[in-house]
Amino acid sequence: MSARTIVLVVYDGFQLIDLAGPLDVLAAANRAFDTPAYRLITASPGGRAIAVSGGASIAVDRALEEIASGADDIDTLMVIGGDGAFAPDVSSEVARHLPTLARRSRRITSVCAGALILAAAGLLDGFHATTHWGACDHLARRYPRVTVEPDRIYVHDRDRWTSAGVTAGIDLALALVEADLGAEVAQLIARHFVVFVRRAGGQEQYSAQLRSQPARTPSIRAIQQWLPDHLHEDLTIATLAERAGMSQRTFARSFSAETGSTPALFIETLRVEAARRMLETTDLTVDAIARAVGYKHGKTLHRVIARRLSTTPDRYRQHFATTPAARRAAKAI
């Protein structure tokens, strides 16, 4: 088979792991065959050495302008993410070359915030896409013709592939390898890197306490801190408002305005996090875990985890069990 040309686009302020993760996966795919499956080319504006986010710099193989003016077919165009994607001058310098490159590419991809540069070039208009969870709102606001899916590790829509943040670039690269070379090769590489070929769940795998901003009002901030240890209790708006010394309407409005989340969504996220920890570390049944986090029935927890993490409690445990007890429970499923 002839090697597929993959052009990995970098710029000042890109994030090194966003490049290194996919590059290592694709290089591993090359080592699986006598003849390399991929021809990997790094490119930057002007072909200049690029400053990595954090201070180091790397040399690249080619200039974007040189590749754009050529006639060779490109299998995969991949725009790497990083803080530089948010800088208008950096983004525009890269984006102006992308439509020309995209016309010669079989598929167009991005890692993390690289989706912002694809969107700036108009290459995500009319497509579903994702990016780092912290940039999803920005992408949706600035580029309304892009349908943003915030809780996805990666999104494949026709010939566009976009990934969530940082290590999700590895998930994306494994998906590309599987599409090109088959599941067996992707699984071999995943085992080498000690990762899953398909990670269970979406990118909403970070703490609700970290995701939400601390409330300014002391009584609301106190409830934020109190809630994780009282998920099994009555957490209606009436109960929480009384605890905060506010009317229900004032509490609900103030909580949403100050934390960026409704009380119900905040509580549900805490319950999902608590359930995940128990699935990872205990052999409790799903029904028992549901009751421990405040749901009356295991079916309710099933529905919430399916909606929030795109998986089931049993499947989540099979992937992420970290203790002997949890692993035994996973094997018994």
TrEMBL record:
Spans through the membrane: none
Domain HTH araC/xylS-type: 221-319
Domain of life according to the entry: Bacteria
Pfam (any one): DJ-1_PfpI
Keywords: DNA-binding, Transcription, Transcription regulation
Gene3D superfamilies named among the record's database cross-references: 3.40.50.880, Homeodomain-like
Key word Transmembrane helix present: no
PANTHER family, sorted: ARAC-FAMILY TRANSCRIPTIONAL REGULATOR, HTH-TYPE TRANSCRIPTIONAL REGULATOR RV1931C
Protein's recorded name: GlxA family transcriptional regulator
Lineage: Bacteria, Bacillati, Actinomycetota, Actinomycetes, Streptosporangiales
